[in-house]
Amino acid sequence: MINVYIDGSSVGNPGKVGIGYLIYDDDKLLKKDSVYLGVQTNNFAEYMALIFALTESLSLGKLDVNVFSDSQLLCEQIKGNYKVKNNNIFPLFVLAKKIISKFDKFQISHIDREKNQEADALARKGSGFLI
């Protein structure tokens, strides 16, 4: 099972958004990326980080994935515990669920920001907010 750390960043909300993700197989880093996605909301960025990371995981041939995010909203919506009320986010939720259905095993867990610093740094880089 691979471990995937994701984060989205927004400079302003809405504002310039970036995403960051890291994909690990045990302790070996398989892939990391940072992407600028224009002007959007923070929640948009969180969903896009998930979508990009899951797509990359599939392209690596990895079908068992543990995702870690510091966005409680994203985690709870994906688990089905919170409804997706935002009409702009709903299509991203549907797309994420469609991609998730391609995996043999999928888990998503909420983690503290302090445990997600690498993904946060990549997301900030993507949004143009340099540390």
Looking at the structure, what is the overall shape?
globular
Q: What summary fits the major beta sheet?
A: 5 strands, mixed
Strand content: 35-45%
Query: CATH homologous superfamily - what is it?
Result: Ribonuclease H-like superfamily/Ribonuclease H
| Spatial order of the strands forming the largest sheet | 3-2-1-4-5
Mean pLDDT: 96
Q: How far is the N terminus from the C terminus?
A: 31 Å
Rg from Cα = 13 Å
Following the backbone from N to C, one meets helices and strands in this order, namely EEEHEHHEH
The CATH class is Alpha Beta
The number of helical runs is: 4
Number of strands: 5
> What is the CATH T-level topology?
Nucleotidyltransferase, domain 5
Structural class: alpha/beta
